[in-house]
TrEMBL record:
Molecular-function annotations in GO: G protein-coupled receptor activity
Major subcellular site: membrane
Organism for this UniProt entry: Phascolarctos cinereus
GO cellular component: plasma membrane
Lineage start: Eukaryota, Metazoa, Chordata, Craniata, Vertebrata
Protein family (similarity comment): Belongs to the G-protein coupled receptor 2 family. Adhesion G-protein coupled receptor (ADGR) subfamily.
Functional note: Orphan adhesion G-protein coupled receptor (aGPCR). Ligand binding causes a conformation change that triggers signaling via guanine nucleotide-binding proteins (G proteins) and modulates the activity of downstream effectors, such as adenylate cyclase. ADGRG5 is specifically coupled to G(s) G proteins and mediates activation of adenylate cyclase activity.
Residues annotated as domain GAIN-B: 28-204
InterPro entries: GAIN_B, GAIN_dom_sf, GPCR_2-like_7TM, GPCR_2_secretin-like, GPS
Alphabetically ordered keywords of this record: Cell membrane, Disulfide bond, G-protein coupled receptor, Glycoprotein, Membrane, Receptor, Signal, Transducer, Transmembrane, Transmembrane helix
Recorded coiled-coil stretches: none
Protein's UniProt name: Adhesion G-protein coupled receptor G5
Polar residues composition bias: residue spans: 522-539
């Protein structure tokens, strides 16, 4: 048993049949004086029982095995030894061999089927074949997570039924009874090796769709990573050349609202800090981290420790990205609703502490509470064959617990999407209200559509598409979600380019108006010094950790007749 366990990955599959039969032969000839004997290693446990013809039934549970990882029970009826005792040369002593495998390596079929807990329970009566039992054998399997999203099937190992493997899983003679969402009862009429086959019930992906979805994900994530890196480099390049961040991320709806409310842009009112720009930069960093961890995740599935670390890092990256999307919505709320008289001390520092610290706290709490929740997550892929049992799995390093996925992934994303959707509707409503105050707004339709689409991308509206993965929406949702979410960083880059073009055009207009205003001011008030242009960086820039919009400066400018 120790030999089988320590040399699992250095053998061919064809050797498994010989090794299993060799283990059965050694247990058959084992010498012991008591009624039973137990032999255990970390992943393989064996029990041998001495039976007689007056056998009254037997129940074996996981308490017999000290190293059993999960709970299980095997119940043998009194009918088990009747056929053997009726034989002409019935032995005085019968032996029942039970073997528990906590690894599916020895029983991997051609399709690498997904088994519950990777547990296989085997039983055999030495020198006798047991089949067609009227009472049957009951085998109960438990799982510590809910199994509601799986189709569960009790199967047994049929030798010689596989092509590349030495056997295949079959359902003949076994009945599946789902006792609860955590317990499965298998009722079988023969003795052999048993397991529970698992299939994703509602989110199966066909083999034909796996290749295009994988290709889209790889290309989209790679393109988003490059686009986000390019956006960050352009920002820092602009800061190095100009001495400050350019105003390339001023939202069109904000500038449009001020233009309608106050007339032409006032240079002094544009003395804003770089808070919005820093928020965008952090969002780009979180997108880069998410894309990189997602691309690296499938390559570490066969390294347990590294896979747990990668799964936790991928979860952290996703939560960070969603958190910064929510911060974008919060910042937009401040700009839309509380346009002036806003001051939050150390604004960016607090946002960074929340945007990066809160997801880290959640992941660290899960690791301390239940580290087994992270690891190798298998996604079942169905084939085009009619037999649903034929499936092949693909795996990534991700969250294995469905409860944690629903709460800390779907729930977290749902709250973020709902919050940002409310902010987006508020922004569209405000934009519509501004149109009602204008006489000619037909020329702004194209710009307004661009603004709404840009805000939708910025606030991550497309990340709510996975909530529509049901019924006839499953296939369109898979492709739309894969395309939009994998290209999220690229869409942010397009939004950056559009806003930079708008900012450049606005800067030219502002410079022309500034020259006119300066001439008028020199005629009316010679002692008044001209105010700096919107393209000029302040000698004492506002620190990036605070945000404020002072109303006094605007009132001072509005007091002049030329304003």
């Amino acid at each position: 048993m120790k030999f089988l366990e320590t040399r699992t990955f250095f053998r061919k599959r064809q050797d498994n049949q010989r090794l299993i039969h060799s283990l059965e032969a050694k247990l058959k000839n084992a010498n012991f004086s008591s009624g039973n004997v137990t032999l255990q290693t970390n992943n393989i446990q064996s029990l041998v029982f001495k039976l007689t013809c007056d056998f009254s039934g037997l129940t074996i549970n996981s308490s017999y095995l000290e190293k059993a990882q999960t709970r299980h029970i095997m119940q043998f009826p009194t009918e088990l030894t009747q056929r053997a005792c009726k034989a002409r040369e019935a032995p005085q002593e019968l032996r029942l061999i039970c073997i528990y495998f906590d690894m599916k390596y020895f029983f991997q079929d051609d399709d690498n089927s997904l088994l519950l807990n990777d547990n296989i329970l085997g039983a055999s009566l030495v020198n006798h074949s047991v089949s067609s039992l009227r009472q049957g054998i009951n085998i109960s399997f438990w799982h510590n997570e809910s199994l509601e999203r799986y189709d569960l099937t009790c199967v047994f190992w049929k030798e010689g039924a596989g092509k590349a493997s030495w056997g295949a899983w079959s359902t003949a003679g076994c009945e599946t009874i789902l006792i609860s969402s955590y317990q499965v009862l298998c009722h079988c009429d023969h003795l052999t090796y048993f397991a529970v086959l698992m299939k994703l019930s509602s989110t199966e992906i066909s083999m034909e769709l796996l290749a295009p979805l994988t290709y889209i994900s790889i290309v989209g994530c790679s393109l988003s990573t490059v686009a986000s890196l390019l956006t960050i480099l352009l920002h820092f390049y602009s800061r190095r050349i100009l001495g400050c961040f350019p105003r390339t991320f001023n939202l069109g709806i904000i500038e449009h609202s001020r233009l309608v409310a106050e007339g032409p842009p006032i240079p002094h009112s544009r003395k804003k800090n770089n808070s919005t720009t820093y928020i965008h930069l952090n969002l780009h960093v979180s997108v880069i981290l998410l894309n990189i961890t997602f691309l690296l995740s499938p390559s570490l599935t066969f390294q347990p420790v590294a896979c747990v670390a990668m799964a936790a890092l991928l979860h952290y990256s996703l939560l960070s990205c969603l958190t910064w999307m929510a911060i974008e919505g919060f910042n937009l709320y401040l700009l839309l609703v509380r346009v002036y008289n806003i001051y939050i001390q150390r604004y960016i520092l607090k946002l960074c502490a929340f945007g990066w610290g809160f997801p880290g706290f959640v992941v660290l709490l899960l690791l301390l509470w239940k580290s087994s929740a992270y690891g190798r997550y298998e996604i079942q892929i169905k084939t085009s064959q009619e037999n649903d049992a034929n499936s092949q799995n693909t795996s990534i390093c991700w969250i294995k617990s469905m409860e944690i996925q629903w709460v800390f992934v779907m729930g977290y994303a749902g709250v973020t999407s709902l919050f940002n959707l409310v902010i987006l509707i508020w922004a569209v409503k405000m934009l519509h209200g501004l149109h009602c105050r204008e006489k000619k707004w037909e020329s702004r339709i194209c710009r307004d559509i661009t603004t709404v689409l840009g805000l939708s991308v910025l606030l991550g509206v497309t990340w709510s598409l996975p909530f529509f993965s049901f019924s006839d929406f499953l296939l369109p949702q898979l492709f739309l979600s894969t395309i939009f979410n994998s290209l999220y960083g690229f869409f942010l880059f397009l939004w950056f380019c559009a806003q930079k073009r708008h900012s450049d055009l606005e800067a030219e207009t502002s410079s022309s108006l500034q020259m006119i205003r300066t001439g008028l001011q020199s005629n009316h008030s010679p002692l008044r010094s001209p105010q700096p242009s919107s393209l000029t960086c302040s000698a004492s820039p506002v620190p990036p950790y605070g945000t404020s919009h002072q109303e006094g400066g605007v009132e001072e400018d509005m007091a002049h007749p030329e304003t």
